[in-house]
# Entry
Amino acid sequence: MSISYPGYPDTVANNKKDKNEQDYLDLIREHFPQNGPGIVLGPGDDCAVVSCPDKICLTTDTLQEDIHFRTAYFPPEAIGHKALAVNISDLAAMGGTPTGFLLSLTLPQDGLKNDFFSRVLKGMSDLAAEHDMPLAGGNISRGRDLSLTITAWGTPGPRFLTRKAEAGDVLFLIGEIGLARTGLSVLEENGEQQKKYPQSIQSLFFPRPRVKEGKKLAELSFVRGLMDISDGPAADLPRLIGPGLGADLDPDFPVHSEVLDFAADSGMDPLEFALIGGEDYALLGATSPGSSRELLRLFPHCSFLGRVTENQGLRMDGKPFHGRGFDHFK
# Structure
């Protein structure tokens, strides 16, 4: 199956010449500067040398072909962007400022067609430049499928926000849920519908890390905890609130119009569909009782998902909610 995406040329022609490892390394150097803030010694030696403050936060994530993306319909730029974006989103959820990253690549044995790899790097380097994140180094190897592993780090704001909640806390979201799942479903089931769901496709391909929002939330003493949504609220909510607690979900939680339309066309409940969907990278947080109005004043597009309870499990309208999010092993 091959699905074109408006604005991006097809990548179906064969390589015009074989490339060796040095060719790929040279291409990486073309896209990323050899120095940057905090980089004492950059790519090209046995190790990178970086200057660090007393505390940093570290995160790592892998994007694997046919698990996290398909080259049949993912623009190459989106692959590079998303590989870095999911790591920046983790830093944002801690209230941190991204400051650098390492890149480990596994490239298919038969190479990548045309300028595919260059476009992957372009998507990544554009986002790195937006956040002033230098590439400190990494690794490149050969394998069956394309795989990108990034390790990123950042510096703290007033504090590192962690996954934490207390009974009575209000659960809030900054960002949309269900859009990425809608985009993925459209592309997997019927790529011809993609023009009907532009925001969903954009959300799937080019998630926007919410660094400014995360830093601002870290300044608010009434914000108890925070995380980003990667596996869907149904899977991530229990991770935020921790063991021994549960949540009553708001059945009137607002859902994006594209999610509503897709769910209606598919005969599914839109909120349940959104709660199960992953890869939205919205910020999910818990704020102390009575602080909702102030939070809404500071973040007008914030929405409220429910409330933390002493009763374990998730419930909606008083009934147990059994929906599950994404799990690599199920």
